[in-house]
Amino acid sequence: MIQIEKLRKVYRARGREVTAVDGVDLTVREGEVFGVLGRSGAGKSTLLRCVNLLERPDEGRVRVDGRDLLELSGGELRRARQRIGMIHQHFGLLSSRTVAGNVAFPLEVMGVPRAERAARVAELLELVGLTEHADAYPAQISGGQKQRVGIARALAGRPKVLLSDEATSALDPETTASILELLRDLNRRLGLTILLITHEMDVVKRICDSAAVMRQGRVVESGPVRELLLRPGSELARGLFPLPEPVLRGDTTVVDVTFEGESADRPFVSTLARTYSIDVNILGGAVEDIGGTRIGRLRIELPGPPDVNAAQLAHLREAGLTVEVHGVAGDAAGAGDTATEEEAPVS
Ligand SMILES: Nc1ncnc2c1ncn2[C@@H]1O[C@H](COP(=O)(O)OP(=O)(O)OP(=O)(O)O)[C@@H](O)[C@H]1O
Ligand SMILES: [Mg+2]
Q1: For 8-51, what is each residue's pLDDT tens digit?
Q2: The pLDDT of residue 104
Q3: Band (340; pLDDT cuts 50, 70, 90)
Q4: Is 41 touching ligand 1 by the criterion CB < 6 Å?
Q5: What would the 3-class secondary structure string for 125-159 be?
Q6: Mapped to the 3 state alphabet, what secondary structure does 300-338 carry?
Q7: Using a 6 Å cutoff on CB, does residue 199 contact ligand 1?
Q8: Per its UniProt record, what PROSITE patterns does this chain match (predicted)?
C-alpha cells in the first residue's frame, strides 16, 4: 500500500545541513498497522510528512496505493492527498467551530454538497463515538475526545491510508488505550492501512502488525513485530523487555532466551538444569501478549564461561528458542549489545 524507496530528506538552514531521512526503504502492506519507533530527532515526522508530500524528499520514491506521488500534477496530488488521512499529537482543531463543524471542514474544502455533508458528518461522528458531542466546542471536550474529532476529520475523504504522528503522546495511559483501540477497530472495519510513528513501545505492542526502528534518519530494523522480537540483537525486543546491562563476572554465562507461544509453555529452564546437572540462575524477564501470542524473554545465568556452555546453548536453540549470549568474544559494541551468533554459534 505504501512503498518508500531510498528516501532522503536534507534540511538546509543557515548554512547548516541536517539529513533528517537518510536512505529509507519501507513497505507497508495493505490493511496493516505499521509502527515506526524511534527517539526524538530520529526523523520519524519527516519520514511521515514525505508520505503525503507535506515535505518533498530530496531523493527517492514514495508510492501510495500504486501511485508515485512525486509524478502527480497539482490537482492529482490534491486528490491523492484526500485519500491519505493524517492525525497529530496536538489535534489541530478549529476552536471557533463545533465538533461537527470541524469534521465538516474538509468536506467543505472538497466541495461536498450541504445535505450530503451533514449525513457524512453524522456517519463519521458515529464511527468515532462522538454523536452526543456534535455541538460541543473543542474547549468543552477532553483530549481523548479531541483526538476522536481529529480521527473523524482525517477519515472524511474516505482515505485508504491513515498517517498518525504521535497521536496519543498528549494523552494519559487510559485514554491512549481507548484511542489505540479505536484505531485498531477502524483498521479492521474499514480495512484502513495505518502508518503511525511513536516513541512509545506500548503503542507498538498494542496495535502494530509490523514495525520499523529508526535511528539518525535510518531504519535499523523492520518487519512483522513478532519476527522482530524473536530476531537476535533486535532493538525492538530490547525496548519491549528492558533488562539492565548484566554484570559479567567471567566465570558464568549470561544468556537472554526469547520464547513464544508453544515454547513458552515448555519448562526449558528445568529441562536444561536436569539434562546437564547444573544450577540455572534466573536473573530477570518478562512476558508480553503480542497480537494474541505470548512472547517472553528470560535472562538466565549458567555456571562456567560461554565456551564451556556450547552444548547447553545448542540445546536451547534446538528447542526453538532465540538465544543471545552476553559478552562473548567479538562483542566490541559494548553497552546494550549482545553478540548475535545465530549463524555462528560459539564453539
Ligand atoms: N523544518 C526543519 N528545518 C530544519 N531541520 C529540521 C526541520 N524539521 C526537522 N528537522 C531536523 O531533522 C531531524 C529529524 O526531525 P524529525 O522531526 O523528523 O524527528 P522525529 O523523529 O519526528 O522527532 P520527535 O520524536 O522529537 O518528533 C532533527 O534533527 C530535526 O532537528
Ligand atoms: Mg516528530
Answers
A1: 999 998 889 999 999 999 999 999 999 999 999 999 999 999 99
A2: 96
A3: very low
A4: yes
A5: HHHHCCHHHCCCCHHHCCHHHHHHHHHHHHCCCCC
A6: EEEECCHHHHHHHHHHHHHCCCEEEECCCCCCCCCCCCC
A7: yes
A8: ABC_TRANSPORTER_1, ABC_TRANSPORTER_2
What would the pLDDT profile of 175-199 be if each residue is shown by its tens digit?
999 999 999 999 999 999 999 999 9
Cβ of 123 closer than 6 Å to ligand 1, yes or no, is no
Cross-strand bridge partners of residue 194: 33, 162
Q: 133 and 145 in contact (C-beta within 8 Å)?
A: yes
Name the residue with the closest Cα to ligand 1, atom 3: 11
Confidence bin at 242 (pLDDT 50/70/90) = confident
* Cα distance between residue 6 and residue 294, in whole Å: 35
Amino acid symbol at 157: G
Ligand 2 centroid vs 217 CA: distance in angstroms?
A: 12
Is the distance from the beta carbon of residue 21 to the nearest atom of ligand 1 less than 6 Å? no
Residue 60 pLDDT greater than 90, yes or no = yes
> What does the DSSP 8-state code read for residue 243?
P
